[in-house]
Amino acid sequence: MATCLLLSCVLLSALIPATLQLSTPDDDSYIAAVVEYAAVGDKATEKPLDIVRQNWHKYKKIIKQAARQNADIIVFPEVGLTGMGLPANRSSLREWLVQVPDPTAREVPCTSSSSYVSEVLRNASCAAREHRLYVVINLSEECPCPSEDPTCPTDGIFIYNTNVVFDRNGTVIARYRKFNLFVEPSFNVTPTAELSTFDTDFGVRFGTFICFDLLFQAPALQLVEKLGITDFVYPTAWFSELPYLTAAETQAAWAYALDVNLLASGFNNPPNGNAGSGIYSGRLGPLDVTMPLAQSIKMLIHTVPKKPARIPISISENSLNRSSQFTDFSGSVPLSEVPTSTIGSLRFFQDDFRQYKTVLLDTDIENNSGNSTRHTDIDLCHAEFCCHFEITTDTNPEVQGERDSCDREHCGGYYYRLGVFNGVRGFAGIRLAGIQVCGIIPCTKKNDITTCGLAKHSSFRPVNVIFKSIRISGDKFQRHSSLQMPTTLTATVLPLPSSTYEFNVKEAQEDDKNEVELHTKEDVNALIGLALYGRVYDRDGYIEAQSTATSGASRL
Fold it and tell me: Buried-most residue among 274, 297, 330, 332 (CB within 10 A)?
């Protein structure tokens, strides 16, 4: 027996790369990898297991590459192993499902003899074990339930969209089941949002959630505020919405607002609207980020500074309303009817600004007086919520020559409006989300609000206006049950570097209000959108099937 154990140790050590260096609790950083991943496989002609095997084969190569670069942890995206377009019929969906062990059992699928351990779980466990790194994957889980359980579906199983985390030994150490589903009718949710965390041997405790969860209080914000979590692994298959909720933009804004590390791995299918991954370090901004305009597979890897410990705070939890009595809605059509536009081959959904209070920003780019600098200083209000804008603009020299030959609608770039909204928006006719927004809105036509939030060109072109300075503020943002974020988007469909602006939130003199301000520190010459984007969680709810749809655009 001792000989067998010794031989096993020798074989295991032979599998570990000679250059492997593991981060420790004493280090002030760790090395993280995230994967922007385009799935392979044809659901019309190939069996589910064959598709999962093809994608796992690619995953394994990426894990090996990450290990060679001394990654401590690697994150793969939502639906990466299966691709999108899973069957809506639950009986057909069962071919794609796997059972996931309870993390408290500390099971190692690589060495387990349990009959329910699936091939993909065993492979992921063995890869984590062989290459000595933490591995995060997303899959479709089946969880058998007893017939006497009144919540048990008639087919006897709960179906979850699930993250699974393996440690360096291949042990299943965390499992998270998506709580905020989005157009996933065959999937179930847990009675309350799971606050799923795991500890690492390099001294960092991570939280995990999935895609649309990021926009809600439970579990994403609760992990920060209730448990003091500072680092997150985040598989996603985001559908971007212009101009404030594109993938990388939203990831960066959330991490910045909360000053947390976010390891975001995005599913990649640009023609379908899916793209965007990044490694973000709070107020330091993106350490590495990608928003591919064409289908691609790319691993991002970066050293991530550790965050100081955070003291948990007591927060109130909100129950979701089945419908909303709030009268100001943004968005009114199902996702399939939302206008879209493209940059490269990447598809973007359009936000709906018809209910916003807006005013055209005077950039006067077509003025031939010789002085194209314009300064705007204005207060704008909607539903007792006011924002102050101080903006100075000038003509972009790169496109100045176009002024005399054509107007902006045909060659120059965008018109901009200043916009304010205080109310509730919808998502795909199923979810309601409270928002308070002060922002700069890009429009393709001067006097047509329905063109706001559409991409101007199908490929990158310089934007016609330089923003010499931007200062936006508001002192009536709701303080409790809320989050204010700085959303910024450039013509490269990436967020502004955090070094180019300052964003501050402090308590206002009025009770239960926050004063929020964003101001730029240098010229911005490729701006698409910028906003103080506030989420107000106690307005959230569901839209009744019989009620009028109030959706915005994103399928997240």
Answer: 274
Q: Is 178 a residue of the active site?
A: yes
Look at residue 235 in the predicted model and tell me its pLDDT. Answer: 98
Contact predicate 521/499, CB 8 Å: yes
The reply to whether 130 belongs to the active site is: no
Give 465-485 pLDDT, tens digit per residue. 899 999 999 999 999 999 999
Is 406 a known active-site residue? no
> Which residue in 3, 130, 14 sits closest to 66, CA to CA?
130
pLDDT at 114 over 90: no
User: Residue 373 phi/psi, 5° resolution?
Assistant: -75, 135
Residue with tokens 């070094």: 499
Which one of the listed residues 58, 178, 357, 476 is annotated catalytic?
178
Which segments of the chain belong to CATH 3.60.110.10? 31-305
| pLDDT tens per residue across span 412-467 | 578 999 999 999 999 887 899 999 999 999 999 999 999 999 998 765 555 778 99
State the catalytic residue, choosing from 58, 126, 184, 211.
211
Which pTM was predicted? 0.92
Backbone φ and ψ of 378, nearest 5°: -150, 145
Instruction: Just give the CATH number of 31-305.
Output: 3.60.110.10
540-552 b/e (C-beta count within 10 Å ≥ 16 → b): bbebeeeeebbbb
Yes or no: say if 140 and 73 are a contact pair by the CB < 8 Å rule. no
